[in-house]
Design a protein that fits this description.
It is found in: Membrane. Pfam families: CAND6-7_N, GOST_TM. InterPro entries: CAND6-7_N (IPR054103), GOST_TM (IPR053937), GPR107/GPR108-like (IPR009637). This protein has 456 residues and is of the alpha+beta class. It has 2 domains: 167 residues, no CATH class; 261 residues, Rhopdopsin 7-helix transmembrane proteins (Up-down Bundle). It is 53% helix and 17% strand. The protein is built from 13 helices and 9 strands. Helix 8 packs antiparallel against helix 9. The N terminus is likely disordered.
Length: 456
């Protein structure tokens, strides 16, 4: 779910602006742009049909001093522009702009010093539709160097509000010697990063398998699911590494995006299921699930299916799609709901253990289990907070040269969460959490009573 990001952080940027004549949408667009996870560059094909939005964002790209944009248009058509067509076509065209310069464009538009974005000196104008002559449909193909190293937005501006249709092929790359690198600067390290984590999870899967076989007497069904989760995470990292590798070299994922989406879905579902099952104490405290716990699973699993659909739409439609923002917001909402839902079973287990401590006379043992589940609750909350909020902040404040750092932070947090969960709930005969001296019974009772007010 990271990519979701992705990595991190409009209806694309474009639909935020579609047809609006005030500065507010421009500001919303900038805030949105700085908060979303960075899109992976490469070669992008977009089909625009009868679209009258003021601004359509094609892509964003972190360029080095040798960055280039190949822009190819085909079947370009637009609705009748009226009597002022020859002059008006200068108000429709493509441009690039940096994040800082985009703020200047916002100020200029707010102060009414410009009537059309293409009039601003802060943007790099590529070309306008005034270049087209004769009868359509029109075609255009040209290569542009990015002026300097920076992160750029590639946009189409339509100040006339005409309905435009066209097919766009945008290729963005940085030259490394005589080789094209289609990944943005700051993301070109991702294939190696993900491949390293793939081998780490392969090692973890091997260790977990060895532990479960060695302790097969005390291994439960939940341990099998935990092993499957680690294996799915390994396959997920491998498919993501291959996806980024082929995008880096050729501009397209060569089908690895399909494997990435498949393992992303399986890993996402299994992760939330395992957290819910561990949180309910399934196989540890009881061999069954209660009705309300089953309802949590019935909510989380369909939501993960919907989240996977949203991820695919976001990844394949591109920033220019009208409904991009809608799907992006839906994905965030689903993620928040799932993260909240998996916390309830842990709290229910904590309350159950506290109540049992006052009735079965095994205060010390129940205190140990209570301590374990409280720790797990805190770790789950910390994991969710870090991967959803802290990583997004890192993506926003970090220079685009080091965007890979936020992905490294996300994966290290995920790895730590997996290791903690596996270590604390490993299948061993005498878990130190479940074995306390009898002398500690009285202290345990006092601790139980002291902590009775624990709530979600």
């Amino acid at each position: 779910m990271q990519h979701l990001a992705d990595h991190s952080k409009s209806r694309s940027m474009a639909s935020c602006l579609g047809g609006c004549a005030t500065w507010v949408p421009f500001l919303m667009l900038f805030v949105w742009f700085t908060c979303i996870p960075n899109a992976t560059a490469g070669i992008h094909h977009q089909s625009i049909k009868d679209d009258n939005r003021m601004v359509i964002v094609l892509e964003q790209f972190g360029s080095t001093s040798r960055g280039h944009l190949d822009l190819e248009l085909s079947n370009v058509e637009w609705s009748n522009a009226g009597d002022n067509a020859p002059l008006s076509l200068n108000s429709m065209g493509f441009f690039t702009v940096t994040e800082d310069d985009w703020l200047q464009v916002i100020r200029e538009y707010e102060q009414k010093s410009i009537k059309c974005i293409l009039e601003s000196r802060a943007v790099q104008l590529l070309f306008t539709f005034a270049k087209f002559s004769g009868t359509g449909p029109y075609h255009y193909n040209h290569t542009y160097p990015f002026p300097r190293a920076n992160r750029y937005l590639v946009m189409f501006n339509n100040c006339l509000g005409l309905r435009v249709s066209m097919s766009v092929r945008a290729s963005m790359y940085n030259m490394e010697g005589h080789t094209k690198d289609y990944l943005s600067e700051g993301q070109t390290q991702l294939p190696l990063l993900f491949f390293c984590f793939f081998w780490v999870y392969v090692a973890l899967a091997g260790i977990w398998t060895y532990v479960c076989i060695k302790q097969k007497i005390t291994a439960h069904r939940i341990h099998i699911l935990m092993g499957i989760l680690v294996a799915l995470k390994a396959f997920y990292m491998f498919s993501e590494a291959e996806d980024k590798f082929y995008v880096k070299k050729t501009g397209t994922p060569h089908g690895w995006d399909v494997a990435f989406y498949a393992f992303s879905f399986l890993k996402g579902v299994m992760l939330f299921v395992v957290i819910v099952l561990i949180g309910t104490g399934w196989s540890f405290l009881k061999p069954y699930l209660q009705g309300k716990e089953k309802k949590v699973l019935m909510v989380v699993i369909p939501l993960q299916v919907l989240a996977n659909i949203a991820t695919i739409v976001i990844g394949e439609s591109g920033l220019s799609d009208r409904n991009w923002l809608t799907w992006y917001q839906l994905l965030l909402l689903i993620d928040v709901i799932c993260c909240c839902a998996v916390l309830f079973p842990i709290v229910w287990s904590i309350k159950h253990l506290r109540e049992a401590a006052h009735t079965d006379g095994k205060a010390a043992r129940n205190l140990a289990k209570l301590t374990l589940f409280r720790q797990y609750y805190i770790v789950v909350v910390s994991y969710i907070y870090f991967t959803r909020i802290v990583v997004s902040v890192l993506q926003t404040v970090t220079s685009y040269h080091y965007m890979w750092v936020s992905e490294l932070a996300r994966e290290l947090a995920t790895l730590s969460f997996y290791v903690f969960t596996g270590y604390k709930f490993r299948p061993i005969p005498h878990n130190p959490y479940f074995v306390l001296d009898e002398e500690e019974e009285e202290v345990a009772v006092e601790e139980m009573l002291k902590d009775d007010d624990f709530e979600l």
